[in-house]
Amino acid sequence: MPRITSAKVIVTCPGRNFVTxxxxxxxxxxxxxxATLNGRELAVASYLADHVIPCLxxxxxxxxxxxxxxxxxxxxxxxxxxxxxxxxxxxxxxWDIKGKxxxxxxxxxxxxxxxxxxxxxxHANGKTIEETIENALHxxxxxxxxxxxxxxxxxxxxxxxxxxxRYFYEPADADLPTENLxxxxxxxxxxxxxxxxxxxxxxxxxxxxHDIHHRLTPIEAGRxxxxxxxxxxxxxxxxxxxxxxxxxxxxxxxxxxxxxxxxVFNAIWDCKELIEEQLIDxxxxxxxxxxxxxxLRRIASFADMHNVRTGCHGATDLSPVCMxxxxxxxxxxxxxxxxxxxxxxxxxxxxxxxxxxxADGMMHPGDAPGLGADIDEELAARYEYKRAYLPxxxxxxxxxxxx
Length: 403
Prior knowledge:
CATH topology of the largest domain: TIM Barrel
Shape: globular
Structural class: alpha/beta
Radius of gyration: 20 Å
Low-confidence stretches: none
Strand content: 15-25%
Number of strands: 16
CATH architecture of the largest domain: Alpha-Beta Barrel
Mean pLDDT: 97
């Protein structure tokens, strides 16, 4: 049995911050796990280095479930993004080790492939509707079968999802939080014309998605969903804050537009009511923030019982290590829906060489043993951590609002 002999946390910033856990065994096999928590990276790095790694030394690396339970139940202070991101990193690294020892790509250990590839969606954005449509047409030409649409809102200086770069969007943009202004009224007037123009330009053979980013009240979200029904959106993401899961009952009463939520969820309990009552159509919990592959498979199995499909978060705050893990998960679960995919910079891809690939609107994790992702530690060391916060939102009267 492979014993864990050492583990270390690697923090690097090739354009943005990433936290990676590397676990080594007495058989000379190592595994990697992503522990990145956007804007709170060092909290997870400390949790791992100071509280988790000492408990791992000497353990059997094959006992993934037992180690998961030990780190979850043994901490007493359960759940939360810091704890669950740390557990996720350990879990990913152990699955990586198991796959390398078996000589198999991870999806084979998870039951094999349920599909030939995982459909992904790209991010089309622009300051105006015209710019967004132009960008979306480019994604369509690249072969994407699903495209997320985000456009500037007239009367607002900045809008979530609209970046300065056509391809790369990194919201954690400042040493201290940027303060943005928000108006739900102005926003609600802007989205239906975006979808109308998108259908005219792109046709009906491409899935169109939109992210509200927790900014509406339930009744406002219901109104928007109803307004967009003629354009058949694939989903409306994060329509309202989901701490109160019952909020989605009200949205469901007013629209048949599919609903997706969960990128900030950390455990199955965050979505239990949403799934049980079929208040959502897609669960967006991700490998790194929801306890790793072991726990995300539980969420997916529970969702499958209630006709809810997966749609995992996949922005650039997931390192290529996590994207690889997500694709193995996507390939193996029967109720997969879609995978978010934001391309990393060349600097990031150089630090994290990987085997996953894109073709014809789908991605495949590759057939290298384990996760199929690695880290160049010498190169990673050249990029020092740089503090970066996500923005905050205020309404036009100055009061705080959900970003």
